[in-house]
Design brief:
It is a single chain. This protein is mostly helical. The chain has a domain of 89 residues: Multidrug-efflux Transporter Regulator, Chain: A, Domain 2 (Orthogonal Bundle), CATH 1.10.1660.10. The protein is built from five helices and two strands. Strand 1 and strand 2 form a beta hairpin. Helix 1 packs across helix 3. This is MerR family transcriptional regulator. It comes from Deinococcus arenicola. InterPro entries: DNA-bd_dom_put_sf, MerR-type_HTH_dom, MerR_fam. Keywords: DNA-binding.
């Protein structure tokens, strides 16, 4: 990783960002082409660099996509978070509504999607806990699998 300026912010190249996030370089490039992930700095030679918050955003994008969020809504999520956080990922205290280049309808759609995802997550967490309890009762006793009596 390189630090091209004196602010001590660490920047990642495309390959470094991909490696840190556990994805391919092509994935980072594809997300950049789709404007899901935007470089924080471009050097005089045209090399794109990403700040620390880009790593978190990339990981979040991968999670949101895995949970079924459409690309346009994932892009809106990144736009919203970029408008309200700095390069390090700290929430900006000075942001206001005009800093967010999304229409109210887009923000409402995003909130609706997030609430639906959250509700589904809670249902699945409950289901997983029940399954775990059942499996624990069925197969864990004195440390050995109990006989199948069903």
């Amino acid at each position: 990783m390189s630090a091209p300026d004196s602010t001590q912010t660490t920047f990642y190249t495309t390959a470094e960002l991909a490696r840190e996030a556990g994805v391919t370089r092509r994935t980072v490039m594809h997300y950049a082409e789709l404007k899901l992930l935007t470089p924080d700095l471009t050097t005089a030679s045209g090399r794109t660099l990403y700040g620390p918050y880009s790593l978190r955003l990339l990981r979040d994008l991968m999670d949101l996509r895995a949970l079924g969020m459409p690309l346009d809504e994932a892009r809106d999520m990144v736009i919203l978070r970029r408008a309200t956080h700095d390069l390090e990922g700290n929430r900006r205290r000075d942001w206001n509504r005009e800093d967010v280049p999304l229409a109210d309808g887009q923000l409402q759609a995003l909130q609706t999607r997030l609430r639906a995802m959250h509700d589904a997550y809670e249902r699945q967490a409950d289901n997983l806990a029940r399954l775990d309890r059942w499996l624990t009762k069925r197969f864990i006793g004195d440390g050995e699998a109990m006989s199948d009596k069903s």
